[in-house]
Amino acid sequence: GYSKEMSKEFLDAEMKLFSKQCRDVDIIISTALIPGKKAPILITKDHVMSMKPGSVIVDLAAESGGNVETTQVDKIYEFNKVTHIGLTDLPSRLPTQSSTLYANNISKFLLSLGSNDQFDINLADEVTRGSIVLRKGSLMWPPPQQSVTKAPKTDEDVKVPEIVKEVSPFKPVFKEVMLYSAGISSLIGLGVGSPSSEITTMISTLSLAGIVGYHTVWGVTPALHSPLMSVTNAISGITAVGGLLLMGGGYYPSNYVQVLGASAAFISFINIFGGFVVTKRMLDMFKRPSDPPQFNYL
Predict the structure, then answer these.
(1) What is the Cα–Cα distance from 112 to 122, expressed in whole angstroms?
(2) Alpha-carbon Rg of the chain, whole angstroms?
(3) Interior CA angle at 270 toward 265 and 275, to 5°?
(4) Closest alpha carbon to 280 in 298, 297, 268, 267
(5) How far is it, in rounded angstroms, from Cα 65 to Cα 73?
(6) 181-203 burial: b if 16+ Cβ within 10 Å, else e
(7) Half-sphere exposure of 22 (CA within 13 A, CB side)
(8) pTM above 0.85, yes or no
(9) SUPFAM superfamilies, per this entry (predicted)?
(10) Greater pLDDT, 201 or 263
């Protein structure tokens, strides 16, 4: 129950955005509620008709009428091959998760009532004051309205027009074309000078793999770097196994094939170890100082 009624211009722009998004997404979860009123309709029947077959709509506002026009209260059904979930007792269907989330919110609120491990009710705190109904027999509800004052404008608030320099598309395209031309020329030169067709095939595969890998890594958004690290660890594991098989089981390499196999296994092990280290450091960035310690090595 946190939403407020918006202007007609805002609603029109919102509906236009929802119409575009409904054609692209596979699942919609709606939670908008207005205190004391029926839940607003955000997803119309036309929006649902434009969704892909097999999509899912979870209307968490179904108890107050729902945010989706085609939602049926307390029912799970399909409309235009789109599954609608309009259950009103989802918290009771997920008792463990609901209790954990509720306990986490309550514990954080109680821990915020004070400082230095001392319980103290600070009426100057907006959250604390808004949560108190009675104190020492005195009615404290409703809380007083908070006055909001505008901050004075500073030099940073004054927008300075940016000077946009025109960038010629010729230079980046020319650089990319020359880079690929040099690579292809080198590949042809190696093919002409190679003693056998097998070496030419292996060099071609290695070169194409390098090009594909370069574009794959640089084309990934930063949010997907951790999953990408896991994938590269799996690929490095395959490379390490292949290198071990080519090493022949001896104490030291006896030919060029075993030398290359040992080198591939060694480099793969470095990549695997570094991948786990980097992944752990990235996951540690999301930990809070108050989180309990984890002993994953056990």
Answers:
(1) 10
(2) 31
(3) 125
(4) 297
(5) 7
(6) eeeeeebeeeeeeeeeeeebeee
(7) 21
(8) no
(9) NAD(P)-binding Rossmann-fold domains (SSF51735)
(10) 263
Q: CA-CA distance, 211 to 166, in Å (whole number)?
A: 30
| CB of 34 closer than 8 Å to CB of 71 | no
Alpha helices in 113-196 (DSSP H): 126-131, 170-193
What is the C-alpha to C-alpha distance for residues 232 and 262, in angstroms, rounded to an integer? 19
Which range (163-167, 198-202, 277-281) has the least confidence?
A: 163-167
Half-sphere exposure of 23 (CA within 13 A, CB side): 7
Amino acid sitting at position 99: S
DSSP 31: -
With both helix axes pointing from N to C terminus, report the angle between 256-284 and 225-246 in degrees, rounded to the nearest 10: 160
Q: What is the pLDDT of residues 12-67, one digit of tens each?
A: 888 889 999 999 999 999 988 888 888 989 999 999 999 999 999 999 999 999 99
Question: According to DSSP H, which parts of 80-169 are helical?
Answer: 90-93, 95-112, 126-131
> Backbone dihedral region of 80: left (phi > 0), alpha (psi from -120 to 50 degrees) or beta?
left
Q: Work out the angle between the directed axes of helices 170-193 and 197-218 (0-180°, nearest 10).
A: 160
The dihedrals phi and psi of 118, each to the nearest 5 degrees, come to -115, 130
Q: Give the residues across from 118 on adjacent strands.
A: 115
Q: What is the DSSP letter of 55?
A: -
Query: Vertex 12, ends 9 and 16: CA angle to 5°?
Result: 140
Shortest CA distance to 207 belongs to which of 229, 190, 225? 190
Tokens 């009771």 -> residue = 92
